[in-house]
Amino acid sequence: MQAKSKAMPFLMAPPALDGSMAGDVGFDPLWVSSMLPDAGWLPWLREAEIKHGRVAMLAATGAIVQDLFQFKGTDTLTNGAKMTGLHDVFLAKELPGAAGNVATFHQMLLWLGILELASSAAIIQSFKGETPRVPGDYGFDPLKMGKDPKMALKEIKNGRLAMIGIGGMVHHYILTGKGPVEFFGGIPNYKSCVAHDPTLLPRLYQDVVGPVLPKIC
After folding, report:
1. Do the beta carbons of residue 43 and residue 131 sit within 8 Å?
2. Among 3, 14, 110, 137, whose CB has the most other CB atoms within 10 angstroms?
3. How far is it, in rounded angstroms, from Cα 107 to Cα 94?
4. Do residues 206 and 198 make contact, with C-beta atoms less than 8 angstroms apart?
5. Using the 8-state DSSP alphabet, how is residue 13 labeled?
6. Could you tell me which residues come within 8 angstroms of residue 153 by beta carbon, excluding any fewer than 6 positions away?
7. SS (H, E, C) 122-189
8. Pick from 130, 163, 170: which is nearest to 49 by CA?
């Protein structure tokens, strides 16, 4: 008899999710895992989840730290901007005629591209089933925590939470112009928020729909 899903006890557990992966509680209400064309797709998707979770944890930490600490001299480069505002400042430095014409995003793409290429061989081998490599294992584990199932579970749970969290932080910043710590300090008195900058909207949207963000401050 097929087991019930731990996450949703009123539904049957998807056959492809056997509970062997950390954080697998049978939550797949659309049964996407059972519709994958090949068995290699499941570890491939787990690889993507772990990688996005790790990036989100770094991003969420960085978003919070920006409200608490700033390296000396960075204000002259960023004009005190953060979150999506910082993206706009760096992008402006790349536009033709910009002061200095600094290739900020080109550098990011270069180094991140090198990292992706360096890790792609192991990921492809895992996808083809040519190696017993565990998704997310890049051989970098100086603290020797990778062998502990409890730590693997903590990583996947915190990664999932961070992916949701950084999405909320970005939306709060777009609406209020405040980082997560500043925003939290204004709850429940939203009048303490600063008015948002309509230029935070992508230029394409501004041209089409104008400044559509609600003025809540």
Report:
1. no
2. 14
3. 11
4. yes
5. P
6. 22, 23
7. HHHHHHHCCCCCCCCCCCCCCCCCCCCHHHHHHHHHHHHHHHHHHHHHHHHHHHHCCCHHHHHHCCCC
8. 163
Q: 152 versus 203: which is more confidently predicted?
A: 152
Q: How far apart are CA 45 and CA 126, in angstroms?
A: 11
Residue among 145, 144, 147, 122 nearest 135 (CA): 122
Residue where the block lists tokens 């939550």: 27
The rounded radius of gyration (Å) of the Cα atoms in the chain is: 22
Tell me the two tokens of residue 31.
């049964």
pTM of the full structure: 0.76
CA distance 161 to 158: 5
217, amino acid identity: C
Give CA 106 to chain center in angstroms.
20
Query: Which tens digits make up the pLDDT trace of 98-154?
Result: 555 667 778 888 998 998 888 888 888 877 777 788 888 887 888 877 778 889 899
